[in-house]
Design goal:
Layout: E1 8-9, E2 16-18, E3 29-32, E4 38-41, E5 49-52, E6 55-56, H1 65-68, E7 74-79, E8 90-93, H2 99-104, E9 108-114, E10 117-124, E11 129-136, E12 144-153, E13 159-168, H3 181-185, E14 190-193, E15 196-199, E16 203-206, E17 209-212, E18 216-223, E19 231-235, H4 236-240, H5 250-253, E20 271-276, E21 280-282, E22 287-297, H6 310-328, E23 332-334, H7 338-357, H8 374-387, H9 389-399, E24 412-418, E25 421-427, H10 443-455, E26 464-466, E27 472-473, E28 478-479, E29 493-495, H11 496-509, E30 536-537, H12 538-562, E31 566-570, H13 589-603, E32 611-615, H14 616-637, E33 639-642, E34 645-648, E35 651-652, E36 661-662, E37 668-669, H15 673-680, H16 686-699, E38 701-702, E39 707-708, E40 737-738, H17 739-751, H18 755-770, H19 772-775, E41 784-785, E42 791-792, H20 799-811, E43 814-817, E44 820-823, E45 837-844, E46 847-854, E47 866-871, E48 874-875, E49 879-882, E50 885-888, H21 890-893, E51 898-905
Parallel strand pairs: 46-51
Antiparallel strand pairs: 1-2, 2-9, 3-4, 4-5, 5-6, 7-8, 7-13, 9-10, 10-11, 11-12, 12-22, 13-20, 13-21, 14-15, 15-18, 16-17, 18-22, 19-20, 23-45, 24-25, 26-29, 27-28, 30-35, 31-32, 33-34, 36-37, 38-39, 40-41, 41-42, 43-44, 44-50, 45-46, 47-48, 47-51, 49-50
The structure holds 1-O-phosphono-alpha-D-glucopyranose (G1P).
1-O-phosphono-alpha-D-glucopyranose (G1P) binds at residues 359, 373, 375-376, 524-527, 733, 740, 783, 793, 797-799.
C-alpha cells in the first residue's frame, strides 16, 4: 500500500514520530509559552527564537531560510575515530549540518514531537554514537528555550569526545536585517557568564529611534553533572575562522583552544554561543548529557537563570506536556478514526498558537510585526470561547473598544501585558495610511452571538465600552486635521449592543452603484484590494444581511428571555434606523449614500452623548426589513447562469463590471466566497444551494488535489480587482485550496443541512493535510494547499478556529442555544467507530459534559432520529425541537459537575 504519511501518531495526545527526519527539508514546528518566548524549529534544528519584532536571539528565519541558512542550533562532538589519537579528528554535528555528514549521509535520524516539544535522535553506527536533542519552551514563567543533548555510546568500546555548542546570536531587531546589520553589530557587548555568554547591546537602532538597550540575550550551558563550560568562542569570526563556515568551523577543524575570557577585541562583533565542555569518556553503553538555555531577558534587574540538571529538565518537560494537554483536552473528540482524533488536537492548538504568536513569527509568516488583524482576533475567539467562555468574555468586551463611531475599526492590533495577561492594544494606522476592510463589521457580532448562545449571558450586551478614535473619519476617507489625543476628554462610549448596531447599520447604507456594499480596500480576501472606487462585495453583503436578521432575532430573544422592552442608543444612530422615522428608499443607492453621509457628518466630531430609548420590537422591525431587502435584492440581481450551471455573483470590480460568469473570452469566472455567504446567511433557498453545490463541483473542485479551490483561473492579472490575481494560479488567494474559505463553505452547508456535501468538503481538508508525503507538513491545518498539494502557512491560520467550531457545533451538533444545550448531530456513518459510537467532551454551563452518540445501525443523517437521551441509564430531562434536535436546559446541565449523556440514534 502507498505510504501516505511522513509521521505516525504515538498516542492520543497528538505526539508523533517521524522515522526518517533527514528527509524533511522545510517542515517546522512551533515552541512557545505564555511569557511570550517564541521559537520555530526544524528537524535539523533551524528556525529562530524571539520575544517580539525587536528582540531576536537568533537570526530571523523565513521559510526559504530553513534550508538556505546555516545559522541554526548547532552542537558538535569532536573525537578521534575508533579511539586512536593518531587518527584525524572527526566532527559530528548533532543537527546534521556539517560538510562531512551532508557528503556521507550515514546518520540515521528520527524525530518525535508533541504539544509542544521536539526530540531528534541521531545515530551513527560507524562512530558508535547516538545523540538525542530535546527542545522545548517550559510552560512556567521563563523566557528561554531549553535544549538538552544526551549522548550514548552504542559501541562496544570506550569513546572520548569534546562537546561544543555553536549557536550564532543575532541579538537585535528583525528590522536590522536590512537596516544597519553591520552598524548594529558594533553595538554588541559580550559578557562571559559563569555558565556561558550573554550579549547586551549598548543601544538599539530602529524605527523607534536610538534608545539605550536593556535587553540581554544569552546562551548558558552545563554538562549533566552541573559543570560549567571550560571555554568559549565568543564571536562568529573566532569560531568559523577566515576560510571556515558554520558547517566546517575552523575552531574545531584546527583544534583551536577555546577562550577563557572575552577580550576587548571581541566586542562589537557578531556573537556566537559556542560553549565548549570538559572532554568526556563514555564506556560502552554509557550516557551523558548537556543542558543549554537559549534565552532573552528584558528586565535588566533580573539575574540570568540557573542551568537546571537533567532531572529538573525532565520535570519541566512533564509539566509542559501536562500544561498543553490540559489546554487541548478542554474539547475532546472521539470519532471512529484514531488518526483524526490525534490530528484534531493540533488543529485545536492552532488558535492558541495564533494568540501567542500573532500573525507573524513562524517561518511562513515573514510579514507583520507580531500583531493580529481585526478579523483574526475575533475569529480566533470562536474556538477559544468554546474551550473557555468565561476567559473570553473579558476579551470580547475589551475588543469592542477598537470600533469607531463610523463603523470602521482600528486595524493594527498589538498586544499589551496587563496584570500578567496579554491584551490586544488598538493602534491608529501606521503612517496614517488608512485601510478599511469592508468585512470587519461582521465578525464581532458572529463571535458575540456564539458567546451569547453558549452562555445566555445577555447582560454582556449592556457593558459600556469606549469607541476608538483617531484622526480618521468617514470610514477612513477623511482626516480630521484638528484631532489631537486629549486624555482629559472623556472617551465616547456606548453599550456593546450599540457598537454592534453601528457596525452593521453603517454598512447597510454603504453601497456602490449596484446597491451592494462597497468593497472599500478589500473584504475577507485581503487580495481583493484594487477596487476602492467602484468595487462591491456581494459576498459580504449577504453576511451583513444575515447579521441584520440574526440581530432582529436576538432582540426578540432579549424581549422573551430577559424581559428587555427597550434599548438605549446614541441619538445619532436614529439616522440609520430609517424605518422608525424618515424612510429611505432602499432601491435608490444614492439615497442610502446620502443618509450615510449625513450620519458621518453628524458623528465626525464625536457623539453628542444624547441617548434615545427605542422599543425593542420597533428596532427589530427596522433590522428585519433591511435583512429582507438584502436577501431579495441579491436573489433577484446576483444570480448568474452559464453553460447550464447557476450560482451567485460575489463581486463588482473597479470599472463597475460584474466579476463572475463568462468573460469576453468565454472563460467562466467563479469565486468560492461568492457562494459561501449566500448559503451561510440564508439568502439561498434549498434549490439554489443545490445549484451552487453543482457549480462548485464543476468549476472549483480539483479532483487531482481532492479539494475545493478559492476561484477559477482568471487567466491574467486583475488590476481592477486586486493583487491576488497576480500570484501564480493555485497559490494563496489566487485559486489555492484555501482552508479558511473551504471550512466556511462546509460550515455553511452543514448549517443548511447539506450534510453529505458539507462532510465531503470538511473531510477533504483533513485528507489533504494528513497526506503528508504530499502536503509536507506536520499535523495540523495549513492556510492553504498549492497546486502540488503542499500545505503552506502552517499553524497561524484562522481556518483552525472555524474547523473546531464546525466540528463541535455542526458535525457533533453540540452547542448553546440561548444558553441551553442543543444536541443536533450531523455525523456521517464513517465517523462512528465499529460499535457505532462517537463522542465529544466539552465544558458547558460550568459542568464537564460528555455526549456520546450511539448509532448501532450507522444510519445516515437523513434517515436518523434521536430516540432518547440518557445518563447512567436514566432518561434525562430534555425537550425536542425536531426528530434530530433536542435541548437540555442550562439549569439541568449545571445540576451535576459531570455528565455522560448517551444519545441513542435510530
Ligand atoms: C489569511 C488572513 C485572514 C484573511 C485571509 C484571506 O487567512 O489571516 O485574515 O482573511 O488570509 O486573505 P488565514 O491565514 O487566517 O487562513
Amino acid at each position: 500500500m502507498k505510504k501516505l504519511s511522513l509521521y505516525r501518531y504515538l498516542d492520543s495526545t497528538g505526539s508523533f514520530r517521524v522515522d526518517d527526519a533527514c528527509q524533511q527539508g522545510s517542515v517546522y514546528f512551533p515552541l512557545v509559552n505564555e511569557q511570550g518566548l517564541m521559537s520555530s524549529i526544524s528537524p535539523d534544528l533551524g528556525g529562530d527564537i524571539k520575544i517580539d519584532q525587536h528582540s531576536f536571539l537568533t537570526l530571523p528565519v523565513s521559510y526559504e531560510d530553513l534550508h538556505l541558512s546555516r545559522a541554526a542550533r548547532n552542537f558538535w562532538l569532536s573525537f578521534h575515530p575508533k579511539g586512536s589519537v593518531k587518527s584525524k579528528k572527526a566532527h559530528w554535528a548533532l543537527n546534521g549540518r556539517s560538510v562531512w555528514q551532508r557528503a556521507q549521509g550515514k546518520d540515521h535520524v528520527h524525530m518525535e514531537a508533541g504539544p509542544l516539544w521536539q526530540r531528534v535522535v541521531r545515530t551513527n553506527k560507524t562512530w558508535g554514537l547516538e545523540a538525542s536533542v530535546l527542545n522545548f519552551v517550559p510552560s512556567q514563567e521563563v523566557t528561554f528555550e531549553i535544549m538538552m543533548v544526551e549522548v550514548k555510546n552504542i559501541s562496544k568500546k570506550s569513546l572520548s569526545f569534546t562537546a561544543t555548542s555553536a549557536i550564532p546570536l543575532f541579538g537585535r531587531s528583525a528590522d536590522n536585517l536590512r537596516d544597519h546589520r553591520h552598524v548594529t553589530s558594533l553595538l554588541h557587548r559580550l559578557n562571559k557568564e559563569p555558565y556561558g555568554l550573554s550579549l547586551r547591546p549598548t543601544m538599539t537602532f530602529n524605527e523607534r529611534g536610538h534608545l539605550i538597550n536593556n535587553t540581554t540575550y544569552y546562551v548558558l550551558g552545563a554538562d549533566g553533572r552541573g559543570h560549567s563550560p571550560v571555554g568559549l568562542f565568543p564571536t562568529q569570526a573566532a569560531f568559523m575562522g577566515e576560510s571556515g563556515d558554520l558547517e566546517r568551523p575552523l575552531a574545531l577543524v584546527e583544534d583551536k583552544k577555546a577562550f577563557k575570557n572575552i577580550s576587548e577585541a571581541d566586542q562589537g562583533k557578531e556573537a556566537m554561543g559556542a560553549l565548549q565542555f570538559k572532554p568526556v569518556t563514555l564506556k560502552a553503553g554509557e550516557k551523558t548529557s548537556f543542558v543549554l538555555l537559549l534565552g532573552i531577558e528584558k528586565d535588566p534587574r533580573k539575574k540570568l537563570p540557573v542551568v537546571p540538571i537533567p532531572e529538573t529538565v525532565y520535570q519541566w518537560l512533564d509539566n509542559t506536556k501536562a500544561y498543553w494537554n490540559e489546554k487541548l483536552g478542554t474539547i475532546g473528540f472521539e470519532t471512529g478514526d484514531p488518526q483524526f482524533n490525534s490530528w484534531i488536537r493540533w488543529v485545536q492548538c492552532q488558535p492558541i498558537l495564533r494568540k501567542l504568536f500573532g500573525c507573524s513569527f513562524l517561518p511562513d509568516f515573514d510579514y507583520g510585526r507580531g500583531g493580529r488583524g481585526w478579523r483574526d482576533l475575533w475569529q480566533d475567539c470562536l474556538a477559544l470561547l468554546l474551550q473557555n467562555p468565561e476567559e473570553v468574555r473579558e476579551d470580547i468586551v475589551h475588543n469592542f473598544g477598537g470600533v469607531r463611531v463610523d463603523g470602521s475599526n482600528a486595524t493594527i492590533i498589538g498586544r499589551l501585558q496587563v496584570a500578567g495577561k496579554w491584551k490586544p492594544e488598538f493602534i491608529a494606522d501606521r503612517n496614517n495610511i488608512a485601510r478599511t476592510w469592508m468585512d470587519h463589521g461582521v465578525w464581532p457580532f458572529l463571535t458575540t452571538l456564539l458567546y451569547l448562545n453558549q452562555t445566555g449571558d445577555w447582560n454582556i450586551l449592556r457593558e459600556t465600552v469606549p469607541y476608538f478614535r483617531d484622526a480618521l473619519t468617514h470610514r477612513g476617507k477623511r482626516v480630521d486635521a484638528s484631532w489631537r489625543i486629549d486624555s482629559s476628554r472623556p472617551k465616547e462610549q456606548g453599550s456593546l449592543l450599540e457598537h454592534i448596531l453601528i457596525q452593521t447599520l453603517v454598512q447597510f447604507f454603504n453601497v456602490g452603484e449596484h446597491n451592494m456594499i462597497r468593497l472599500e480596500d478589500a473584504d475577507w480576501n485581503d487580495g481583493l484590494d484594487m477596487a476602492h472606487a467602484r468595487g462591491e462585495s456581494v459576498a459580504f453583503t449577504n453576511l451583513y444581511g444575515g447579521n441584520l436578521a440574526a440581530l432582529a432575532d436576538l432582540l426578540q430573544t432579549l424581549a422573551d428571555n430577559a424581559s428587555w422592552t427597550e434599548v438605549k442608543v446614541a441619538q445619532e444612530l436614529k439616522l440609520l434606523l430609517d424605518r422608525l422615522e424618515n424612510r429611505v428608499d432602499y432601491e435608490r443607492a444614492h439615497e442610502k449614500k446620502n443618509r450615510l453621509e449625513n450620519y458621518f457628518q453628524t458623528v465626525a466630531r464625536g457623539l453628542s452623548g444624547k441617548q434615545a430609548s427605542l422599543p425593542i420590537s420597533e428596532l427589530a422591525r427596522d433590522l428585519r426589513e433591511k435583512a429582507d431587502w438584502i436577501r431579495q435584492k441579491i436573489n433577484q440581481q446576483e444570480w448568474v447562469e452559464e453553460n447550464g450551471h447557476a450560482w451567485y455573483n460575489g463581486y463588482y470590480d473597479n470599472k463597475g463590471n460584474r466579476v463572475e460568469g463568462k468573460n469576453t473570452k468565454g472563460q467562466v469566472r467563479m469565486t468560492l466566497s461568492g457562494q459561501v455567504y449566500p448559503i451561510m446567511a440564508g439568502t439561498a433557498d434549498q434549490g439554489r444551494i443545490q445549484s451552487v453545490v453543482k457549480a462548485v463541483d464543476k468549476y472549483l473542485f480539483d479532483s487531482k488535489l481532492g479539494g475545493v479551490r478559492l476561484n477559477t483561473d482568471f487567466g491574467c492579472i486583475q488590476p481592477e480587482l486586486g493583487r491576488a490575481f497576480s500570484f501564480a494560479f493555485g497559490e494563496k488567494e489566487n485559486g489555492a485550496v484555501f482552508s479558511h474559505m473551504a471550512v466556511m463553505y462546509a460550515n455553511a452547508l452543514y448549517q443548511r443541512n447539506f450534510v453529505k456535501e458539507g462532510h465531503f468538503v470538511f473531510s477533504s481538508l483533513f485528507k489533504m493535510a494528513q497526506n503528508s508525503q504530499r502536503s509536507r507538513i506536520f499535523p495540523g491545518l495549513p492556510e492553504y494547499f498549492n497546486n502540488e498539494g503542499r500545505g503552506r502557512y502552517m499553524y497561524l491560520t484562522g481556518s483552525a478556529s472555524w474547523y473546531v467550531l464546525t466540528l463541535l457545533t455542526q458535525v457533533f451538533g453540540v452547542r448553546g442555544l440561548k444558553g441551553d444545550l442543543l444536541l443536533a448531530p450531523k455525523l456521517t456513518p464513517e465517523q462512528f467507530d465499529k460499535r457505532g459510537r462517537a463522542a465529544v467532551s466539552v465544558r458547558f454551563a460550568g459542568s464537564e459534559v460528555r455526549v456520546e452518540y450511539v448509532n448501532p445501525t450507522k444510519k445516515s443523517f437523513d434517515k436518523m432520529k434521536i430516540r432518547d437521551v440518557r445518563s447512567d441509564g436514566e432518561l434525562v430531562e430534555y425537550f425536542r425541537l425536531s426528530d434530530r434536535e433536542v435541548v437540555i436546559k442550562r439549569d439541568v446541565v449545571s445540576r451535576k459537575a459531570q455528565w455522560n449523556f448517551e444519545v441513542v440514534l435510530e
